[in-house]
Write a structure and sequence with these properties.
The protein is built from three helices and 26 strands. By secondary structure, it is mainly β. It has a single domain, classed as Glycosyl hydrolase domain, family 43 (Tachylectin-2, Chain A, 5 Propeller), CATH 2.115.10.20. The radius of gyration is 19 Å and the shape is globular. The protein starts with 5 loop residues before the first helix and ends with a strand.
Length: 372
């Protein structure tokens, strides 16, 4: 969707109730928990025959967290990171795969018995084994007029081989069958990013009825990416990406840490951002610094905030949350694999005139908050 259609977006967002009187007009919220429990939790009984190890594994036995979300065929679909019970008992040392679950109400899910996305004997094995595929974000590509009724979904995720990591990209027509395209910055800028460790990529979207569809700004698609600092990249086709650089040839940092705030440790990209009439709304995750952070949050806790960027210049920050919109409060958000507490937002959809934001709870389960 082009910028010239922003007036239509404004009407759509107002009718969806995005604007809340208790928050700045551009923010999503207020966010409330429709249920006081995780909506997806580990299942020790699930078995899967791993194509690399060639053994049966309990693929979602330990943790199910950090979800992507999309609306398809009148349902919410959540792709969630699932960790098996292999490896040593520490963060990042199990193998991660992506499971798929669907819901007709946003809170009650039916999941498939096997993962739909995982390391395999393919050209990405060296990037993804044995650590796995982690922390997905998903968007829908604009409709192809030459193929009416078909869809293409674009997935960004972390490729982790327990030595290094990068943002991988894959596409699918149905959320079950995937084509992997490899690290998004491989060979970009004459290969200067080939050895970079980077993660967390959210492609800018726009609201089209109940679908968040990848949006073009000034003729290009845009992605906010990274942790420690949030940066930008652009693409002509959603597949090939180039980081936005400054005059010195360094990636432009558009959002950085702030002492005394929930993002005092660092910010990290959340779900795919949304282009609105007010600007680009970026939900992001902030890590609280143990020495110079928000005293109302625990040391190293992750909370989610919001930032607003210029709708015609994605690098220009307009406004930013002082306090988080979502933070660890419930027991299931404070206990688990990540003991400091986490509400790590990654999946956002609009469904039945409500917003549903899906997040990881302490690196152990999937939670949800909603807004009118």
């Amino acid at each position: 969707m082009q910028i010239s259609r922003l007036s239509l977006l404004s009407v759509a967002f107002l009718s969806a109730g995005l604007l809340a009187a208790t928050k700045p007009h551009w923010q999503l919220g207020p966010l409330t928990r429709p249920v006081s429990a995780p909506v997806i939790s580990p299942n020790k009984a699930s078995l899967f025959t791993d194509p690399i190890a060639k053994t049966s594994v309990h693929w979602e036995a330990l943790h199910t967290f950090n979800p992507a979300a999309i609306v398809r065929d009148g349902k919410i679909y959540v792709l969630y990171r699932a960790e098996d019970d292999s490896g040593s008992m520490q963060i990042g040392m199990h193998t991660s795969r992506l499971g798929l679950a669907s819901s007709t109400d946003g809170t009650n899910f039916t999941r498939l018995p096997s993962p739909v996305f995982y390391p395999s004997v393919d050209d990405q094995q060296s990037h993804e084994w044995p650590g796995g595929v982690e922390d997905p974000r998903i968007v829908e590509a604009p409709a192809d007029p030459s193929h009416p009724g078909t869809h293409t979904y674009v997935l960004t995720y972390t490729q982790w081989n327990r030595t290094t990591y990068s943002i991988g990209l894959a596409t699918s027509p149905d959320l079950a069958h995937w084509t992997k395209h490899g690290p998004i910055f491989l060979h970009a800028a004459s290969g200067k990013y080939d050895s970079l460790k980077y993660k967390s990529g959210g492609i800018v979207t726009t609201l089209d009825h109940d679908h968040l569809v990848a949006a073009k700004i000034n003729g290009s698609y845009w992605m906010y990416w990274g942790e420690l600092a949030i940066r930008l990249a652009s693409s002509p086709d959603l597949i090939h990406w180039t980081p936005l650089e400054d005059a010195a040839g360094n990636p432009v940092e558009v959002l950085t840490k702030r002492s005394g705030h929930f993002d005092s440790g660092f910010p990290e990209v959340g779900p795919p951002p949304i282009l609105t009439s007010a600007g680009i709304v970026v939900l992001y995750n902030g890590k609280n610094d143990s020495d110079h952070g928000d005293p109302t949050l625990g040391a190293n806790a992750y909370a989610a905030g919001q930032a607003l960027f210029d709708p015609t210049n994605p690098a220009h920050l307009i406004a930013r949350d002082d306090a988080p919109s979502l933070k660890p409060e419930q027991p299931y958000e404070k206990t688990g694999q990540y003991v400091a507490g986490t509400t790590f937002a990654e999946g956002l959809v609009r469904f039945h005139n409500r917003w549903f934001l899906y997040y990881g709870c302490a690196d152990s389960a999937v939670g949800v908050v909603s807004a009118p």
